[in-house]
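Quick one:
INPUT:
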């Protein structure tokens, strides 16, 4: 705790004393791209930053409404014409780094980021041992909603299913989806990621589904599908007789209305002795390379400030974006949000979703469909390993030749 507080103090000092990077500060122009619904919020935060940092009082900051998806595409098209600071989603990181659109985070800032943000978001801004962006949110992923009058132990999937079966209620999870399916494989210790070249082409795959851990994950899914309580699905609006569902924050209102005073949410449970994992979704701020060292120092200081705990908490209050900052996650507003708190807990066990070829999603759906059709119910471990070997080999054929 002492180290954490010391780093937070260092962050405050870094933000308020960034002028030390240049005796003259910086009085030129910086362009920032953010989502349209955060433009006015960002303007106000920039003014607060300038007021707290006299060396940058004369700096001109132009804030333009360019959403995360368009920002990445635009930067990849023309880095030089792009913004100096821009928001983007985690699945664009590799392409932006390859295109030279991101400069690595200064070591002193990287230490602050790593200490003050949740593990999932920190992992999402890293490539190897290098940090390339500042985490801004941890608010896209899945966790488990449940009926408190039905589920007595939400930490264990076997217990959840037993409670649902006993009460005649349903447990929903979409296991024929390449997004939800990773909860089992990644949780069991498997890996499936792709790497891209400068043009965004898939050029390499790291996958170990064809392994003992892969078989373990596949057997867990087969056992789940055999439960009388199991229903394949992830949309709360389509659910009936709900005991529990693996879903996201976008369905919080539907589930809350459905369950009333029995509404509850937690991270995903464990199954067969391991914690379910999966994909996480994160927004982040990137800084593009600069030839002017004073401007780079200003961009770094501003990006650090705009992703600080105080600003993340304020952004949640203003537009509802879930913070990645550990302190902001403990704010009264975030803690009162049952779904967002559950997601924050789950994201500790997730990886940021990178780029995946379209064929991967089709392949994963096929695997899930076979499970749902009871195709593998009588398979031996050796046969299941053959299934996963074929899956892994096929997934590798999507690499650009």
């Amino acid at each position: 705790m002492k180290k954490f507080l010391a780093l937070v103090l260092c962050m405050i000092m870094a933000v308020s004393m960034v002028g030390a990077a240049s005796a003259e500060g910086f009085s030129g122009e910086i362009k920032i791209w953010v989502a349209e619904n955060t433009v006015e919020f960002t303007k106000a935060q920039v003014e607060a930053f300038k007021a707290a940092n006299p060396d940058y009082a004369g700096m001109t900051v132009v804030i333009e409404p360019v959403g995360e998806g368009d920002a990445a595409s635009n930067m990849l098209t023309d880095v030089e014409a792009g913004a100096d600071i821009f928001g983007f989603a985690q699945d664009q990181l590799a392409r932006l780094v390859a295109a030279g659109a991101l400069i690595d985070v200064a070591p002193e800032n990287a230490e602050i980021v790593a200490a003050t943000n949740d593990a999932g978001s920190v992992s999402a801004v890293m490539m190897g041992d290098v940090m390339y962006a500042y985490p801004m949110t941890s608010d896209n992923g899945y966790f488990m909603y449940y009926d408190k009058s039905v589920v007595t132990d939400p930490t264990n999937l076997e217990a959840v299913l037993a409670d649902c079966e006993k009460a005649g209620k349903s447990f929903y999870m979409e296991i024929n989806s390449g997004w939800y399916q990773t909860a089992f494989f990644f949780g069991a210790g498997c890996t499936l990621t792709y790497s891209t070249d400068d043009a965004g082409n898939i050029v390499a795959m790291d996958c170990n589904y064809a392994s003992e851990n892969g078989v373990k994950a596949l057997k867990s899914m087969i056992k789940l599908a055999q439960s009388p309580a199991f229903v394949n699905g992830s949309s709360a609006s389509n659910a009936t007789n709900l005991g529990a569902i693996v879903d996201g924050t976008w369905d919080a209102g539907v589930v809350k209305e459905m369950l009333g005073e029995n509404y509850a949410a937690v991270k995903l449970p464990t199954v067969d002795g391991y914690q379910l994992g999966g994909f996480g979704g994160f927004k982040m701020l990137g800084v593009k390379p600069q030839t002017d060292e004073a401007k780079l120092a200003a961009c770094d200081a501003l990006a650090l400030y705009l992703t600080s705990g105080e600003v993340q908490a304020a952004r949640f209050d203003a537009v509802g974006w879930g913070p990645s900052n550990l302190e902001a996650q403990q704010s009264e507003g975030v803690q009162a949000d049952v779904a967002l708190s559950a997601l924050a807990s789950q994201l500790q066990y997730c990886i940021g979703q990178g780029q995946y070829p379209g064929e991967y999603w089709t392949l994963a759906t096929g695997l899930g469909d076979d499970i749902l059709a009871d195709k593998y119910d009588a398979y031996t471990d050796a046969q299941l390993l053959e299934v996963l070997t074929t899956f892994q080999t096929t997934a590798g054929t999507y690499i650009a030749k």
